[in-house]
Design a protein that fits this description.
The chain is mostly beta strands. Helix content is about 0%, strand content about 55%. The chain contains no helices and 38 strands.
Length: about 325
């Protein structure tokens, strides 16, 4: 099935519903309303390509759903106003790409990609004002880590602009994911990473989180967070700006953190083993009472290096080995 330049107005059910076996191509189509704009439940031999055009205002499901397929490409589209997600994909046997899209004003997540895909690339998108995650990497249907998956999330701009924007990047069950070079502004929190392994989070810029955290890692193993800039948490509170909970093998190295509020601890480490917090710079505008590292429960084999630097009101204060509390 090939559709080029087609306009679809509101349908009583699905606007475009395909079970293609070899090819589904939508180019510069404009689809508005109905239960769902595009529902592609295609054969595992089918290549799906959706390029250009606008997809808006689905009333029951996501604007675009791609389920199964050999591969998929979603490039250069605008998707907005859905009662659920903007673009939702699952279970491509080979590879999937979502690139150069403008995904905004949806009532659930902006982009949702299943990590059961062998290789997923999410690059160069702008996600604004989506009420849940801007970009969500879901687990396989059976739970647990995906197998033989590699995920690249690079060069995206995620801008909340209002209180509805939730977590910018969420993972669940992801294996070998690289989240690099993204710009994140005005979300509730930047990263919610759960039940995932071998993550690399680097070179991202985060500003103005409203919900108390820059990043939460829950049951994450063998992962590295390095070279990121985290600036400004708007919410009050005394929890950790960065939280490790039931993790193992975490390296948090060479990051810059600032403007977290006078009462907030920088790191909260709960029941976590084999972690390293090294070579970071933390800037606080006021002294307050919080600790650099707050350790809760049985957290063992941790290494907190002398080279972490705490600055108060932009003046060198102290190297922070030993500046932590254990509960």
């Amino acid at each position: 099935l090939v559709l080029d330049g087609v306009t679809c107005l509101t349908s009583v059910s699905s606007n475009i519903n395909s079970s293609a076996t070899s090819e589904l191509t939508l180019n510069n189509c404009n689809v508005t309303g109905g239960w769902i704009c595009v529902r592609a439940v295609v054969a595992t031999t089918c290549r799906v390509q959706i390029t250009g055009g606008k997809y808006a205002s689905s009333s029951v499901y996501d604007n675009i759903q791609i389920l199964n397929s050999l591969s998929y490409l979603v490039d250069g589209i605008e998707s907005y106003g859905s009662i659920l997600g903007g673009v939702v994909t699952s279970s491509a046997a080979s590879h999937g790409v979502v690139s150069n899209c403008h995904i905004h004003s949806n009532q659930a997540a902006g982009i949702v990609c299943s990590v059961s895909v062998a290789k997923t690339t999410i690059i160069g998108n702008v996600c604004r004002n989506n009420q849940l995650a801007s970009i969500q990497l879901d687990t396989t249907d059976g739970g647990g880590f995906s197998t033989n998956a590699y995920i690249i999330v690079n060069g995206n701009i995620c801008d909340g602009e209002n209180t509805f924007s939730g977590t910018t990047y969420a993972t669940s069950g992801a294996l070998r994911a690289s989240l690099t070079g993204n710009l994140i502004r005005k979300s509730k929190q930047a990263f919610q990473l759960e039940d995932s392994s071998q993550l690399v989070v680097s070179g991202n810029s985060v500003e103005d989180c409203s919900d108390g955290y820059f990043m939460q890692l829950v049951r994450v193993v063998d992962s590295t967070i390095s070279g990121n800039q985290f600036k400004t948490i708007l919410a009050s509170g005394s929890t950790g700006a960065i939280e490790f909970n039931t993790c193992s093998g975490i390296v948090f190295n060479g990051n810059y953190l600032s403007d977290m509020g006078a009462e907030r601890h920088t790191f909260k480490v709960t029941t976590t083993t084999d972690y390293k917090i090294t070579n970071n710079v933390v800037l606080k505008e006021t002294a307050g009472s919080p600790f650099m590292v707050w350790i809760v429960g049985v957290s063992t084999d941790g290494y907190i290096a002398f080279k972490n630097i705490l600055l108060i009101n932009r003046s060198f204060y102290k190297a922070v080995r030993g500046s932590f509390i254990v509960n």
